[in-house]
Records
---
Amino acid sequence: MFGEISERQQQVIDTAPGVLTVDLSALAANYRLLCQRAGAARVAGVVKADAYGLGAMRVAPALHAAGCRDFFVAQFAEALALKPALGADAQLYVLNGLQPGAEPACAEAGIVPVLNSLEQIDNWSRVARTHESGLPALLQFDTGMSRLGLSPEDAVALAAAPERLAGVRVLGVMSHLACADDPLNAQNADQLTAMRHVAQGFPGAALSFANSGGIFLGKDYQGALVRPGIALYGGAPTPSRPNPMQPVVRLDVRVIQTRTVPAGTRIGYGGVHVTRGECRLATLASGYADGLPRSLSDRGAAYAGAIRLPIVGRVSMDSLTIDITALPPGALGLGSLVELIGPHQTLDALARDAGTISYEILTGLGTRFHRVYR
Ligand SMILES: *Cc1c(COP(=O)(O)O)cnc(C)c1O
């Protein structure tokens, strides 16, 4: 894969509409930083949705090489696809649990489901009882997000009928924080109290509670196994504070046309942007089909070095337009690259301009960019 690049291949790279660079050494550094911050807890890698769009087949082995042995995906099919890329010492967990009927295949693959309901517990136990040494699982409890996991009533029902877990080796008890990215939100402490209540029903069980933000809420939240996703990929775990993570993603997009227009010129669909003075424009080769949201219309910017080049007019499907008047004439031309995510514009800054979060930007980045793994 890293062998000689033919001249033709190099031409394809040089003419791709954009270049998405994933820095695997920054990813590994982020993993190590999270290990430090997590104290005694083991640090898993959350690699659902193709490792937040960055390519699970590259990201997960890089995390494994950095020492990670626990990998969370959302769906069973994701776990099956990833399994061959990881060593036999790696453990894959399925956050969404299993659809009825998937249990035998999951057991055979040695993949660990997160059981989110009494129904999923019953289904897994039915298969687990036919295995001599049982089958492993994590149990998830809802501590205040109302998304996945056993309700407090389910927990009472389970405590009253522990035989429902026959054959199930409970590797740990988990829950998920709704507001971990906001340390001041009182819901964090409420969920911690609820989690401690759940834990009393499983003395000695390993607890897993914290996502990226949760790790930075401190020791109380860390338990035995933490589950960071976005922080591994360079996103801010606590957006209101300085981001301690290294950037992992860089996105450069190519210029496909430039022009000079007089004052009063309309730009793009709907003609919503009208130039106030003469300006120079560059059209870039990517649009909302590549994951640059339409909400960036007339908001946000690209960068040429440190120079900010505002997005003007509406973002199109395959292109967008920037104002390059701040640059010397001729500085950008057909084939030039400008930065959308990189040293001058963080992932979080682009997401903020788009009115969304880093997660949605990453998972939306399209397949038409040339991808480089470093
Ligand atoms: C996605 C997810 C994570 C990772 O969250 P980040 O905020 O990206 O760190 C952890 N746990 C669960 C249950 C999740 O769904």
---
Amino acid sequence: MVQATPLLLVLSLALGAHSLSPRKCNLTGTWKNDLGSNMTILPVDEKGNLAGLYNTSVADNSSKIHQSPLLGFQKLTNPIHQPTFGFTVNWTFSDSITVFTGQCFVDKHGKEVLKTTWLLRLHVNNIEDDWKATRIGTNVFTRLK
Ligand SMILES: *[C@@H]1O[C@H](CO)[C@@H](O)[C@H](O)[C@H]1NC(C)=O
Ligand SMILES: *[C@@H]1O[C@H](CO)[C@@H](O)[C@H](O)[C@H]1NC(C)=O
Ligand SMILES: *[C@@H]1O[C@H](CO)[C@@H](O)[C@H](O)[C@H]1NC(C)=O
Ligand SMILES: *[C@@H]1O[C@H](CO)[C@@H](O)[C@H](O)[C@H]1NC(C)=O
Ligand SMILES: *[C@@H]1O[C@H](CO)[C@@H](O)[C@H](O)[C@H]1NC(C)=O
């Protein structure tokens, strides 16, 4: 009995700490994806406006890569636990544009994860090449410590 009491105390503290931290996914911060690209999302404002910076690890010409701005929106549903979002990246080193859309989830291990799908629009010189100018892909982001 004397020995069981501290154990119960530790257990209740652990459970109490758990219930105090709601399972929420917050877009603000620095993220890395499955390709080794990183992005930083600045604090989202009260209307859901979202801005940040993207460091890609991949490009058709990787020696030209530069940090590029991103701009978009986050949905502010109440309560904001696992918000949907979308943003555009303006690649500063090419004529391409990428749009991302996704959702900020808390996975079964309690870890925040961004599941996204993107469209990359390449610049082509004439309308005959339009058919090959759009690429699609997916990326999974986790928080970069
Ligand atoms: C997300 O995190 C930022 C910075 O840590 C904080 O300012 C903001 O209030 C958080 N947003 C929500 C919805 O919890
Ligand atoms: C992104 O790149 C900039 C400039 O190269 C660098 O200063 C910054 O630390 C990088 N951020 C991340 C999260 O990789
Ligand atoms: C992303 O961040 C990691 C860790 O700081 C760094 O090693 C890597 O070079 C960064 N990648 C890019 C593309 O900035
Ligand atoms: C890639 O970018 C570098 C630096 O801007 C440039 O010198 C080189 O010619 C480019 N290569 C191609 C294949 O466009
Ligand atoms: C978007 O990228 C282009 C380079 O392609 C640059 O000239 C322009 O200033 C950028 N605009 C913004 C708002 O970042």
---
Amino acid sequence: MKPEIDEAVSEIFQKQAFVMGPAVASFEKEVADYIGVKNAISCSSGTDALVLALKGLGIGPGDEVITTPYSFFASASSILLAGATPVFVDIDPDTYNLNPSLLEDAFSEKTKAVLVVHLFGQCADMSPVLSFGQEHNIHVIEDFAQSVGATYQGRGAGSMGTVGATSFYPTKNLGGAGEGGAVTTNSSALAEHLKYLRVHGMKERYYHDNLGWNSRMGGVQAAVLNVKLKHLDKMVLRRRQLANRYISALSSLEKDGRLFLPSTSEGNEHVWNQFVVRVENRDEVRGQLMERGIPTDIFYPKTISAQKVFLDRGYDDQNTPIASFCADRALALPIFPELRDEEQQMVISALEQVLSKKLSVEPTKLI
Ligand SMILES: *Cc1c(COP(=O)(O)O)cnc(C)c1O
């Protein structure tokens, strides 16, 4: 994509349109169409998108937001940053997403929203989440930083709740050349409000009615993202091909109880931002893969409620045992559009070798 990107970036320099401007406006339109939502409001990061979404809905001190402890830190730290209180519910071990059957018990008079995360490229089970929101007349906020382009029953991630928040950090499926994010909503009133919040709450130049801050997107970022968006479907197809190949190649290890594979729930189109398996003795397995030249990663080594920031605020991970179980065993294998077939075969062979060895601890049930 380099020639296309170089040209688009050079145009930004020619126009000196470094902040907002035409490239940002066209990206907002294109990405909203891609997701299937009326409005996308670009901003400076996924974290800011989450804080904008919460503040845009007027959620703050005294309010509770139900969310998952199994995600990147920002999913829940954004709730603290907005001044509200996160309430954690456990996850579904098959999808790593929030378990909707636990929402009712977490509800209180103070609950103002459910913040679901569509983790690793697959949407959470939205039907019961949306019904729960309607029943209690509270908002549903979607963190789809890892799932741009994923669908649930034909609806795009980021288009189903009151508001969605996503990230264009370089490791995401739609990654820019730096920081970026967007808030999505079908409500034009909320969209207008968010546009002002992102520029210091300023409707008329130098007149401030709301307390906003600077969360604008740069023109260079939008220029790069406009090019990459055109190639996104192709990149997702390649991720899907790689995921299917991992699944068929590793299924016999799963039958032997050596490994737990990710899967796609019915009604979902998975975009495979990550391919996360579970293994016993995860750190040992990871070390042995590294010795064979296979880099892996851990998403996430600790639940959010067990992070020091949350422990210091009186949280623990006692009520979310499935999330803790997954945090101890999750191992992310290499997956990205440029991964070649022969490279993936090296990963598969190395994993087969490592997992066929006698482990220092016998495998327990990986759920
Ligand atoms: C990356 C990510 C974020 C934060 O996005 P940034 O652009 O890095 O601020 C939030 N939530 C999830 C699930 C993410 O993966």
